[in-house]
Predict the 3D structure of the following.
Amino acid sequence: MSLPVLKAADFASDQDVRWCPGCGDYSILAQMKKVLPELGVPREKIVFISGIGCSSRFPYYMNTYGMHSIHGRAPTFATGLKSTRPDLMVWVITGDGDALSIGGNHFIHVLRRNLDINIVLFNNRIYGLTKGQYSPTSTEGQVTKSTPMGSIDHPLSPLSVALAAEATFVARSLDAHVKHLGEVLKRASQHKGTSLVEVYQNCNVFNDGAMAYAQEKKQRADNVVELEHGKPLVFGKDNEKAIRLVGTHLEIVNRNDVPDDDLLIHDEKDPNPSIQMMLARMRYPEMPEPIGILRDVDNVSTYDEQINAQVDLAKQTRGEGDLEKLFHAGDTWVVG
Amino acid sequence: MRLAGDSGDGMQLLGTQLTNTSALAGNDVATFPDFPAEIRAPRGTRAGVSGFQVQFAKEEIFTPGDTLDALVVMNPAALVTNIQDLRKGGILIANEDGFTDKDFKLAKVDANPLEATVINDSYRLIKVPMTQLTRTAVSEHGLSPKIADRCKNFFAMGLVYWLFGRSLDPTLRFIDNKFGKKPDVASANVAALRAGWAFGETTEAFGESYQVEAAELTPGTYRNIMGNQALAWGLVAASKLSKKDLFYGTYPITPASDILHELTKHKNFGVRTFQAEDEISAMCATIGAAFGGTMAVTASSGPGIALKAEAMGLGMMLELPMVVVNVQRGGPSTGLPTKTEQSDLLQAMFGRNGESPIPVIAPRSPADCFDMAIEAWRIATECMVPVMLLSDGYIANGSEPWKIPTLDSLPQIEIQHPVDSNDGEPFLPYLRDENMGRPWAIPGTEGLMHRVGGLEKEHQTGNVSYDPANHQLMTETRAAKVAKIADRIPEQEVYGETSGDLLVVSWGGTYGACLTAVRRCQEAGHRVSHAHLRYLNPMPRNLGDLLKSFDRVLVPELNMGQLRMLLRSAYLVDCIGYNKVQGKPFAVSELIEQIEALVPAAVAV
């Protein structure tokens, strides 16, 4: 039996989308609907789980199974679901506040367990749903409703956190770069283990243009480097600039001045995350920021695989559980 | 009798063995392990004393007893912290070698209490140089003195077994199982056990040994079972009875962790245990598993339940079946982790934001944990709701004989997941059945794709709705769904007459003490009855009338009056509280005192 061919429209639910006009979330939703039909997974086998925040309304708009859960906890619902239903494709939709602030603990632990799910983290560096407080990714000095004199927090990068938590798939894309976004989402879905995709997403109401240096086509060439496995890290309007590894740090070089052999070649498959961590730490304006797949490492067992393998092994070695046997094991006595 | 020593002295092991052996001898047994929260409090100090109390009897018993007939103490700290519970004339066995000047200092006693006149006059003191005798007994086994000294609990065990005419066989089997891989340790423990027995038989100190005959229990096959173990087995049984695999998401916490330890042994039953990164994760993973169609359970104790509250509210809103176990301990905050209390009843009832009623049930004894675990899952699936199962530290760690049920006597739990009707109509995930439950449509089912969430649901469609009338309707519906369970649970049973001078109402782990107290008062001619609640939300449908049939109602609780508050508000019946929060269970004698103060003088029987 061949699977019915689905189109993007088949993945739209009957609910009106209620994000602000011009929100970057629309683009991510559109790319998701475009990518899913290409995966050949039936709609009923897909589950979207979200936390709380603007991005977390996402499941309501997908014609799949979905759960809009509570703030920061989406990875934990996914853990219970995927551990018991490894047949399902599970996506977690989260934001910078949801995943990195209130849900920071779960974010780390789902990554280290390498549960076979995909996490899409919409990073707009602001709290949108609560109307404009600063987030864990807001920049130092950023003026928001809750930081009128500027933020004094040091921001963190979800990519660095993910790599430190032993993530096996770490990527970044942009809501405005739709083709790239679609490809990264597809790659994430194909990875076995937890995939983390950070998406720079513009909040045009509370933090408009915060990542314009990367989002706007004109500026992007100089401020973003698109990672490609096995290729040097080149950027600039005419690909005239590149990245070189010197000792334990990265530097920008002019390609005319440096032979190609000296350039850093991207290796997303390197099990050692040291250089990938250096990439994750490249920040505008000192360095161009990387987009694409930083890390995609196979052959790491997944949590869902292991929890089920132990059940299978127990059944094989001890036989299917028998209540009668359990109750009567050990010392018993008969009365009457 | 009570066995008391240092945390590292193996008193809990000794107690468990004595319990099993007595149960196997056909006695009815009830136990009360009592230990400090510290794993190894400073040696020899009062803070480090670990005790295990067991009552074995030839008649049916419901508590580990108020006063001790016999007390074994391994050091002065154990003596001074336990002696007040030994009845006058009771047997006091002391490990003489544990009473040195150093030990007196650690226990903060001025002089050797074994030489005190009051001790020698009040009790039958028997001093036994256990450490020396154990060392001699195990000397051939080539163990270091340190390891050899660890065998002295087996020496004490042998002595106690002789005193009560117990068979050594079950403990010999236990030693073989436990230490089989370390033959020198195994044979040393056997030697110590036999030496203890021989000491009892040859010394003239005791004069006599005691025989406790088998109790008359209902015919059947029995085993000894602890509350947490029974609860875990009940969950495994419920999963089999409902043909569902069991997912257990939890975070370690005293006194609930033993449920995890037990369940994780039974993966061949399709049990998946998930030790989460925190309590919240444990609760949410449980909801995730429930969404996927699995039997989902989490457990914790008070502080952990507080952390789970928001997620539990979501579980109630999503209307998915799951079981939340609270093995209560002394609160508030970190409170008394290893001591018992019943102070989370109102938390179970109301400890979530918004109007969020869930069913609450409570086992009454260690063995009852098995039945109530099954009942919790039955109710959860019947009306699609998280069910709170309120155990407590006293029954979780206590044990009693359990009549092993036959499989066909257990309730079958029928679960149906809907499939697409293919009638062109949209699927309605919040359509109600006769129990007001909604369909448990699980991912993977074609045509039933739907979204759930914590935002208010529209009646039937389940879509997000901010409509004022809909919110009222849904709030009332969720409450009515839980209230309606009262139609399908048993009516409240009464021990004694259904009217009279006084009704004693209890719940949870105080069952045994309350029942025993009421029985004794009935025997003394008082018109007093006992109603023990296993269903707390909703309460049995006849309870209101029952309360009103008595002149007075006494509600003894190990809290400041939580059930009393619920009864008063639900039935407008004035209830009198007897409230104790000392981390200890009720003594039967204090309950009798309370009852007698409230009833007219006894009529002659």
